[in-house]
Amino acid sequence: MLDAIQSGDAKMEPKWHFVLETILLITGGVLALLLVLYLASFVVFVLHQTGLWYAPTFGVAGWFSFLRSLPWILIILLIIFMVILGVLVKRYSFVYERPAMYLFIGIVAFVAVGGFLIAATPFHRTLFDAARNGNLPVLGGFYRGFGMQHFGDIHRGSITGTTTNGFVIRDDGGQTSTVLYGHFPFSIGNDIIIFGERTPSGTINASGIQQVSQ
Amino acid sequence: MEQTDENIALEVQKGHGEAFGALVLRYQPKLSRYARKFLFRGDDIEDLVQDVFIKAYTKIQSFDSKQRFSPWIYRIAHNVFLNAVRDNAKDRANFSLFDVDVLFPHPIAKETADDEAKRDEMKRMLDVSLGSLDPKYREPLVLYYFEDLDLKSISQVLQVPISTIANRIKKGKLMLGKIVKP
Hints:
The structure holds two protein chains of two kinds. Chain A has helices at about 1-5, 15-50, 60-70, 70-90, 95, 100-120, 125-130, 140-145, and strands at about 155-165, 165-170, 175-180, 190-200, 205-210. By secondary structure, chain A is an alpha+beta fold. Chain A folds into two domains: about 15-145, no CATH class; about 155-210, CATH 2.40.50.140. In chain A, about 25% of the residues are buried. In chain B, about 65% of the residues lie in helices and about 0% in strands. Chain B has ten helices and no strands. Chain B is globular. The N and C termini of chain B lie far apart (about 50 Å). At the A-B interface, helix 1, helix 2 and helix 6 of A face helix 2, helix 3, helix 9 and helix 10 of B.
């Protein structure tokens, strides 16, 4: 062994190599953390924006619709980055000395709390509004694609007028739809979520309506 | 006064490569014993231990001299031995990449003086029947009883939760008891 050291066959790796490795790992960890928070809060924002968040309030059918329409691509991406984050922090003793379940619970709790907190700020709303007005260069399509999507049975909009057997709503994109509903316990201007199929003529047969805050 | 492992490692980090010889002298018998008892094969043990020292020397700058040296070098040894296991198809069958027991917390029993008194007896039992144990239980038992590492140090070597290590040692002892007294 000592011969190998003296002859130069065994060479010490320089300290900067390990410092760089640590810096890269920390940078990777921070980036994974930011991405995870961004994706989690974006998912919450999209669910609110599209009205899907309220689908479970319409019972079993609402739950089916909720699960069917979740942005699964974003959720899978979120899980992938959470796993990457877990792998990056697993090398630290304060993590591996404790049961892996704690790491899992810790990351999920952090992502959930962080995601909801960021979603409650105007961050995504500002970007979404800019995207809708065509003022968001790179992420514009991403925000419009997820934030302005329409589902078969969940519709969000603002009441603009009444008809003999229902009312009219206008969605965030400016599109108006006639809603068939037996009674009208709302006011013009209310923001509502409607559960019901859209007919080929474009009319929505509402089976449930939920008023939401603006 | 005898220099600590950590001070010697610091000397090596400062460029005094010859100081590494003292660490080799101190750890060669320990790592050879660890390899023999963990891997249960004799032919390439010295080559593997040599490989551990070369890796330790190469990566000595990554050692934090404020930490203890022994878990650091045992960690390198663990990785080298594990790679040797993975290269061997027969041994590989006994190892799994992931164990469910790292997921959940396990109660840790307090170490008592009575446990200490039973150490020699346990070492004798281990010497006789260590080969019959699953490597997952064998390795923490070897590190605990032969290498005198505490639970926290073994956790650092294997990068497995402390409570899982305690649980594997406890289960390993129970299995050993059944093997010795059928």
